[in-house]
Every structure is written in structure tokens, then in C-alpha cells.
Amino acid sequence: MKITRIYNDEAGKSHFGEVEIPLKDGGPIGMLSEKFGADKIIFRETPADYDFKWHPAPARQLLFILKGRAEFTVSNGERHVFGAGDVLLLEDTEGEGHCSRAMYNEVRHSIFVTLDEGVTF
Predict the structure, then answer these.
(1) Helix (H/G/I), strand (E/B), else coil: 114
(2) In total, how many domains does the chain have?
(3) Dist. CA 51–CA 1, nearest whole Å
(4) Which residue, 41, 75, 76, 102, could crosslink 13 as a Cys pair with Cβ 3.0–4.6 Å?
(5) Of the candidates 92, 68, 60, which has an alpha carbon nearest to the alpha carbon of residue 78?
(6) Cα 95 versus chain centre, distance
(7) Which CATH number covers residue 107?
(8) Tens digit of each residue's pLDDT (9 = 90 or more) over 6-42
(9) Is residue 42 helix, strand or coil?
């Protein structure tokens, strides 16, 4: 399973990338990843006019978008729109960070899961 990540380089500039989450046969219930340690879960509702300029992620975390759409921008100006069902790995905890804003006048519902130290994908 591939998910998008936002990470920072040594110069503090943010970039998009991809992470492959390995899956194994879980039998009749489908394919499963290994278990990863999580620290906290945060539920969030973002208003339809949300527009948050440059900021780093407060922690290394997974973002699960449940409802609505948002555009994320990284340091080189590259932009991607994500919506319900998308998962992002936010790793740009230092440096310039990213921008995020609501799209199409939609409220966004999302869940953030902060990761335990040492969790790698």
C-alpha cells in the first residue's frame, strides 16, 4: 500500500514523496501490515475557509482524511489535493514546513495519529 509523505531535507525544505507500507497475507480477512506503535490520536474539524500558511508538522504523524478536501503545498511550490480516504505521512517537523488550505468550500474531518519514536515504514 502506497501513501504520500511530506518530509524535509537537510536544508529544511519540504518535499512530497511516497512510502510503501508492506502488506502480508492475513488469510480470509485480507492483507495486513505489521503493527506500528502510535502515541496519540487527535480528531479534527477544519473550517471551510481554512488557509494555514507555512508551518512544520508538530510531530511525526499520520493524517487520515475522512471528509472534505485540502490542498498541500511544499517548498518548491508543488501542490497536491487530498480528500476522503487519503492518508498522508507528515514528517516535515523541522524547517519551512508546508501550507495547507481547504478546497471547494468544504469542512474537513480528519484524524491525526502521532507515531512512536522509531516507527519506520
Answers:
(1) strand
(2) 1
(3) 30
(4) 75
(5) 92
(6) 17
(7) 2.60.120.10
(8) 999 999 999 999 999 999 999 999 999 999 999 999 9
(9) strand
